[in-house]
Amino acid sequence: MDEGKMDENEWVYHGEGNKSLVVAHAQRCVVLRFLKFHPNRNKASEEILQHLQNIVDFSKNVMKQFFGENYVHSGPKCGFIPFSSDVTQELKRKVCRYCMHQHLKVATGKWKQISKYCPLDLYSGNKQRMHFALKSLLQEAQNNLKIFKNGELIYGGKEARDSVADWSELAYHLKPFFFPSNGLASGPHCTRAVIRELVHVLTRVLLTSTDKSRLGTWRAVPNTQGPRACEASPFSRQLRCQGKNPPEHSGLPKGCLLYKTLQVQMLDMLDIDGLYPLYSRVERYLQDFPEQRKTLQIDGPYNESFYQKLLDLSTEDDGTLAYALTKVQQYRVAMTAKDCSIMITLSPCLQDESPGQRAVVPSSKSRLAFSVSVLDLDLKPYESIPHQYTLDGKIVSYYLKAVRAKDAAAVPPRFTGNEDCTLVLHKV
Fold first, then answer.
1. Is 361 helix (H, G, I), strand (E, B) or coil?
2. Reduced to 3 states, what is the DSSP secondary structure of residue 35?
3. Which sign does the torsion angle of CA 397, 398, 402, 403 carry?
4. Where in 310-405 does DSSP place strands (E)?
5. CA–CA distance, 116 with 338 (Å, rounded to integer)
6. Of 41, 120, 129, 139, which is least packed with CB atoms within 10 Å of its CB?
7. 272-299 as b/e, with b when 16 or more CB fall inside 10 Å?
8. What CA–CA distance (Å, rounded) separates 22 from 15?
9. How many Å is the Cα radius of gyration of the chain?
10. What distance, in Å, lies between the first and last C-alpha atoms of the chain?
């Protein structure tokens, strides 16, 4: 790319997180990600270069080993409930962190209303639950769903407005992809049809394997561990109110990206409650021997030996530094997988086009070529673990407070001491 001819007006802001900012050039189909550093932290150019190299190495030498060649390209949240015996709050075994966190985010003004989306529904492998999860994401996208058309953001990435108007606009953009013959008139029926097709196609794509490598058989822990549904999920609550059992947990095909993502997430086998004492053990050692930080690979290099240590799935603490360090590194990788992004690219196939090497998914009236990638795979910082521990406690505490307040409001007031109460018994 000729830097001398670059025009800043040609670049479009796409979004940002705590660590980076993303811009795109629609004409050249190029995306640039800029790292953010705190203004008070002066970093030498060599230090920044090493940081960038660590990002590339971690993606290539670690995450690509877990996800496979087709899904990770070197330079949507946790899909299970904690099952560790170290969990201190029983509530965490019933309600997923995402659903609990929603209450705190709304209370602090980050979002206006609680989303109906629950990651456990998306990761269930059950099409009915996955459809509900994806529709919920479309209704309340927050910062968890964005849709681009030819590089231009057409949905998500902004405060929720009228969902009916938003869906109508989205259907207008996507209608040619799903109904190329223009057989549908405009209006609510057309909007519902397009959204239904979008949800069905996304579900099929997420359940399809495009990577046949041996890595798809890698499993962190058995899928039978932990509950299959979150009690706070509106889908589960609705079924309980109707006196129905939740639908069968179909499970995810082993080759699909959701399955692989879930397995890496489940490297967090101890939950933050069990992990934090081990982090403290490592931290005490580093305070006594700070020069060992590089030897312990806290900040890299993220090479083959780093990856091999992650495969130790033992959960029996022998009191050693090695055990604590392995669990800390596994937790960091798991948190990376919990916070990664999944990008699905769809493009229409002509009626007489042979797909060749491209993966294709059918919709009702068309065929769409697709690709799936996982992004945002920067390893979570070692220093963020205390923050995660504090935040976890705050999320659970606030959710318990909110649930108790809701339960108290639902209970009718009791009789006070000076009120009369008459009990009448009828013969049966």
1. strand
2. strand
3. negative
4. 341-348, 359-362, 367-375
5. 19
6. 41
7. bbbbbebbebbbebbeeeeeeeeebebe
8. 5
9. 24
10. 89
Structure tokens at 18: 């705590």
Amino acid making up residue 274: G
31: helix, strand or coil:
strand
Number of neighbouring beta carbons within 10 Å of residue 380: 18
Residue 353 φ/ψ, nearest 5 degrees? -80, 135
Nearest CA to 375 among 282, 288, 281, 257?
257
Instruction: Look up tokens 């009690």; give the residue.
Output: 231
H helical segments located in 207-320: 234-241, 257-265, 271-288, 304-310
DSSP state of 59: I
Longest dimension (CA), the chain: 96
Residue among 170, 173, 181 nearest 150 (CA) = 173
- The residue behind tokens 């609705």 is 238
Q: Digits of tens for pLDDT over the chain (428 positions)? A: 454 455 666 676 666 666 666 666 666 666 666 666 655 556 666 676 676 677 777 677 777 777 776 665 443 777 778 878 888 889 999 999 999 999 999 999 988 889 999 999 999 999 999 999 999 999 988 888 999 998 888 998 665 555 667 888 999 999 988 887 766 666 777 899 999 999 999 999 999 987 665 554 456 665 556 677 899 999 988 888 887 776 666 788 888 999 989 999 999 999 999 999 999 999 999 999 999 999 999 998 999 999 999 999 999 999 999 999 999 999 999 999 999 889 999 998 876 666 566 788 888 888 899 999 888 888 999 999 999 999 999 999 999 999 888 877 766 555 455 555 555 555 54
Encoded amino acid at 124, one letter: S
Q: Which residue has the tokens 């993220």?
A: 302
**12-16 β-sheet, strand order:** 12-16, 20-25, 30-35
* Rounded Cα–Cα distance for residues 186 and 133 (Å): 26
Amino acid identity, residue 80? F
